Amino acid sequence: MATLAAEPQVKLEVGPQVRVSDPGAAHAEPHIAAHPRDRNKLIAAAMHFLGEQETLVETYSSNDGGATWSLSHLPRLREALAGKEMIVAGDTWVAYAPDGMVHASIIA
After folding, report:
1. Does residue 10 sit within a domain?
2. In sequence order, what are the beta bridge partners of 57?
3. How many CA atoms within 13 Å lie on the side-chain side of 8?
């Protein structure tokens, strides 16, 4: 009879809530990923509602385990929205590759 190895224990620490986006700004479909080797590096993305039918995806990064966050704009999204090349962006997804490169995906 084969025996199964025990799964490694994962320690999860939950700290205080931290505001990532602007107060009062409506956001949806958040997605967050942690760096594969540096637990202090996090990347997040979410839909940001700008108007009745306009949404934009914004990304946020943290280098201190989520204590503070910086807004990062994905290339060309704001320009495409302003030029009416698109009116909505959503279905956010972010991930770190094994080498630490960040990948983001949206549907626009």
Report:
1. no
2. 47
3. 3
| Residue 7 is assigned to a structural domain of this protein | no
The HSE-up count of residue 105 (CA atoms within 13 Å, CB side) is 5
- C-alpha to C-alpha distance for 28 and 45, rounded to whole angstroms: 9
Can you give the pLDDT at residue 2?
A: 61
Range of the domain at 79: 27-102
d(CA 82, CA 5): 55
Answer yes or no: is 63 within a domain.
yes
Quote the strand ranges of the chain, DSSP E. Answer: 27-34, 42-49, 55-62, 70-73, 90-96, 102-107
CA distances from 3 to 6, 10, 104 (A): 9, 21, 40
**pLDDT class of 7 with cuts at 50, 70, 90:** low
pTM of the model: 0.76
Domains held by the chain: number = 1
Token code pair at residue 2: 């084969």
